[in-house]
Amino acid sequence: MNQKRNIENIKKNYSLGIIGGGQLALMLTEAATNRGIKVCVQTKSSNDPASLKADHIIVADPLKVKGNKDLIKECEKIIFENEWIQIEKLNLIDSKNIFVPSLESIQPLVDRISQKKLIERMNLPSPEWISIDEFKSLDDEKIKEWNFPLMVKSYKGGYDGKGNKKINSKDDLNSFLVEANSDDWLIEEWVDYKNEFALVGSRDFDGTIRFFPIVETFQKNNVCDWVLSPAEVSYDLKTFAINIFSSIVNELNYVGVMAIEFFYGDNGLLINEIAPRTHNSAHFSIEACSSSQFDQYICISSGINPPEINMHVQGSLMINLLGLKKKFPLSLEKRIELLSQIKGSNLHWYGKSKESVGRKMAHITFLLNEKNHLKRVEKSKELLTKVREIWPSPND
After folding, report:
1. CATH of span 128-189
2. CATH 1.10.3720.10 matches 193-390
3. What value does the mean pLDDT take over residues 208-214?
């Protein structure tokens, strides 16, 4: 008689498997290597960033169950590069608690509508929103309550400025409803915010929560341009953000690393989005903290007691380096060379084979020693100018 094998009773070849092979998986793999942990990565191509450092690669679409099954056969625990996963299909696999975070805890966070419903159910502050289906059924008086401009956001897969669109007028909205597959989008009230903040933290299997400093993020065309850590925030705001984070991870019994992006303005602190993974806003932690966001995730998922998180410098600056047009006068190699020559630079090259406009190619981090926040802002802008003279933002 054939018996179903319990994969947890079988010693696997690799401690960790990662679904996805982009730059976040690359930095997770680097953190695992620093801990002496072997990693297998499931990714579409052997040329993807994480393939450069992984101990083993399964070349398969991360959304395909066959590749997921092959990964599970090889690995003790499975972690995720991002939230674009097929929960329903993964639930069909006899995984025996192999996923970190669990599928149950990550399910409410894999798309924007389920996130919004979770936030509503928990009575947490966020912009008003409505699904396109619901909006279409409103009468004229109710529609008038939605003032322009509005923001429309895709139901799934929005990142780096993709999946967001500003709607300035009724004509814009009507055109959008006709031209786009609008059922895949939601409508959100426009928020006139003063600052954008992000909070990244971790929660382990014992329920212990650890936090990185709250950072301020600066955007161009809905894409993060640079990040200053720590942000200058009041005690009350910091406490409120920490309480929001703690409430969400405890409610979901979430284990792993999570990021929450916030708007802050006249309406106070509002949740913009939740990212159930490592996040661009905490890349600074690799150099600036006692344990990076990637180290936290690796430790938690592989059974190592994660270190406490302390920022061992006064501050840091992280700048994203996005792909430029082919005709840009400085070659990729020359840009990397010149950036590496800036004093105090820590350049993280993602190893992507092709540069295309707006694609995240690398980031660069500087540690700041100025004790005064205003002086750290001034130093950051000085360094930002130097970097942008060599590698401008494609959104300028």
Report:
1. 3.30.1490.20
2. no
3. 98
